[in-house]
Every structure is written in C-alpha cells, then in structure tokens.
Predict the structure of Class I SAM-dependent methyltransferase.
Amino acid sequence: MFSPRGPGPRELAVQALSSVERGYDLLAPKFDHTPFRTPGPVLDAVASALARTGPFETGLDLCCGTGAGVGVLARVCRRSVTGVDFSAGMLAVARERTRPAGVPVAWVRADARALPFASAFDLVVSFGAFGHFLPRERPGLFAQVRSVLRPGGRFAFPVVAPPRPGSPAYWGLLGFDTVMRVRNALWRPPFVMYYRTFRFGDVRRELLRAGFGVELYALPEFGRRGDGSPRVRLVVARRPD
C-alpha cells in the first residue's frame, strides 16, 4: 500500500494516536507517497468533467491537503485558486510542491467548519476529506460551503460506489472503521476518519436541505458495475442564482 518513501509502521502508529490536525502535520512530508492521496486518474476525470461545465473564475479546494485539488482547479479556473486546510504541515508541503502555471494560488489555514471567506468563489471542490467529519457536522459544513459560493456557484466532489456487501473491499472498510471507533473510545484526542459514514443518499438530502440543487455526472473513465450503475460519479451541488 505504501511506497518505500512513505511512512513506516512507527510513524503511522504515532500519527494514529495523535489528533487529526497533529497527525496530518506529522504525515505531511510523506503524504503524497501514501494511498490516502487522491489518485491521478480521479483528479484527471474530475477536471475533464468540470471543464465541460465551466470555465470558472475563482476556485476553492476545501481541505486541500498537499494541493492535489488545487491542480484540478488551476485547469478550469481563469482568475485565482485558493487552498484551505487546518493542517499547517500539509499547507507547507502544498506551498512547496504545488505551483500550477497560469493562475495565482493562495493558501489559507482555517477550519472547513468556519471558513474565513465571503461569497467569493464560483467553484468549490473537495477530494477525500469527508471521512473526517461526523455525520452531525455535515449540515454545518455544507452551509459553510454555500456561504462562500457566489450565486450560481458549484460545489463538486467525486463519490465512489460502495463495495458490495461481503466483498474484500467491504470487509476492509468495515474493519478500518471498527478499529477507528475502538481507538476513539479508548484514546484521546479522537482521530476522526471513517470511510463508511458518507452515504450518498444521506449526503444528497443534506445538500438539498442546505439549499443546493444537486446534479450527478458519471465519470466514464471508471466504467460501470455489473448492474449498469457508474463506478464513480461526480456530485455537483449548485447554489441557486
């Protein structure tokens, strides 16, 4: 799962027993060599889908980490791009490694649950961050995203179809979430990272309640499952004009 340049077992153990913020500060220098970084094909597919609905002027990468989503925004936004994250370590790596040509980039340290922006963006994206928010936090998170979008702005993120019950991937995710729940019951501070709490039906309802219109786009690069449903979708939530 990890390249030779990724973190070792001892480093992962220290990170797992830290808070989310401290854990990512520690992981930041080697994060891009872990399976937690959003794969390049997903980033490329999202950029292609957004290019068909854009162009956009200004973009925000929510929970930007080391800046993978900023590279996507730089391909579809014409004026400026901003990355926001609450880990100073991740932002430091992003500043050093992510320098897309053609568009200015700003990096802001802030909590996604209290964004320090007015209605400033035409597009907000997020990749792989929602497992760090408990279900009860999502309505507030979506309200924050809506507040930083201009009228007509879009909030986009990819969603992978859940693994079928009984499959190796299903048991793997179930096992991971179970370990995290036991860890958080026994150790403080908590480290919130759950893969099975971001259920599409619940998320769609919460986006609608937050005042978004919701559209779905299949990402054809990843094909379809046996029942004909897409393996990966792009969710595009639009703030009304």
Remarks:
- The beta strands are 56-62, 77-85, 105-109, 121-125, 149-160, 213-218, 232-238.
- The two ends are 44 Å apart (CA to CA).
- The longest strand covers residues 149-160.
- Helices lie at 9-16, 20-27, 40-53, 68-76, 88-97, 138-148, 168-186, 200-209.
